[in-house]
Amino acid sequence: MSVALTKSPPPISTRQDKLRVMVVDDSVVIRGMISRWIGAEPDMEVSASLRTGLDAVNQIERIKPDVAVLDIEMPELDGISALPQLLAKKRDLVIIMASTLTRRNAEISFKALSLGASDYIPKPESTREASAAETFHHDLIQKIRHLGARARRRASPAASPALAPAPDRIREVLPHPVAAPAPQLQLARRSFSMLAPRVLLIGSSTGGPQALMALVADIGPVIDRFPVLITQHMPPTFTTILAEHLARASRRPAHEAVDGEMVKPGRIYLAPGGRHMRVVRHGVDAAIALDDGPPVNFCKPAVDPLFNSAIDVWQGSIMSVILTGMGSDGMRGGKEIVAAGGSVIAQDEATSVVWGMPGAAANAGICAAVLPLNQIAPKLVRLFSGDRS
């Protein structure tokens, strides 16, 4: 069809291979809008459009969807209550939680991730706001496509541990990682910088909250002596909750960065949702600089602005980590860090929810290491202690 020719080739093309998506939302307007978007894509189709979580639980075995877009607030059975029941009936189901931007819904979305949801997406306050609706449209379709395709690739019995709820998935997969594809093993590696790192920068997106909490829990010796700055693709309110989770996981101070504040060792600074986080020189020190500029790599906050700005402050004494996420954000900034004399570590494909951002960095040949998530923290502790191997 001519429409399909105007799009990038989808990962799934034949009708029998289309991703089957179940839309569950009590709003007829939202259900209709999402269903139209899915129906317009050549590699996916709406398998059901349902009003309540109870409908979804009762019908999932008949519908057999690959992906469910699940609203949080619904009558009869809400999304957070339906989630474990859906996974009990279809263990490999990809569930994307959809919610409005309230603190309560952000907290529920984080709980959903711990119960096995694959991701979350914020719904616009009003579908009449064109820019918000377009962002929702773009992000939702990309999440369905990438998460659905990944689940299918990992549907073999050998990969079944990767389909457990999120905390167990991290603990089960990481000690015995799924073998990485052969091309990944052949990627070029650079030597780690011989310059002592003075800051740790981290970028992440889809799957990032779980990965970040696992990582910061094990890098206490690094946080105690050096500043840690994180950009996670996430909207406002959600970053507030994430900062609180990072503080608990790391047992160290963590907060959304504030414009103009000084960057100090012993703290974790998180880019606030909806604003890019950069750093600037302030005498011999560094300060946070937030801005409300346009999205970078379709994201706001984006990783590249942080990576690029850090070079002016710390030159080559930068250690950067690119974790799981869609797209290629962080790759260009990582190139600049390496050119300045710093180092980049990427999460490997087997332990990434989506190997987009870390894969782009790895394929660009800028990484000194591509590691499973559970090996990144020990490596960072050694590197910041003086080991350059």
Could you give a quick summary of the protein structure above?
The protein has 389 residues and is α/β, with parallel strands linked by helices. 40% of the residues lie in helices and 19% in strands.
Report on the structure:
This protein is of the alpha/beta class and 389 residues long. The protein has helices at 2-5, 28-39, 53-63, 79-89, 103-115, 130-153, 166-173, 182-185, 208-216, 220-225, 238-250, 303-314, 331-340, 357-363, 373-384, and strands spanning 19-24, 44-50, 67-71, 94-99, 119-122, 199-204, 228-232, 254-256, 268-270, 276-282, 285-291, 318-322, 343-347, 369-371. It folds into two domains: 19-153, 3-Layer(aba) Sandwich (Rossmann fold); 199-385, Methylesterase CheB, C-terminal domain (Rossmann fold), CATH 3.40.50. The chain contains 15 helices and 14 strands. The protein has a seven-stranded parallel sheet, with helices on both faces. A five-stranded parallel sheet has the order 2-1-3-4-5, sandwiched between helices. It has a two-stranded antiparallel sheet with strand order 10-11. Strand 10 (276-282) and strand 11 (285-291) form a beta hairpin. Helix 3 (53-63) runs parallel beside helix 4. The chain is globular and about 60 Å long. Mean pLDDT is 88; it is low at 1-9, 11-15 and 159-185.
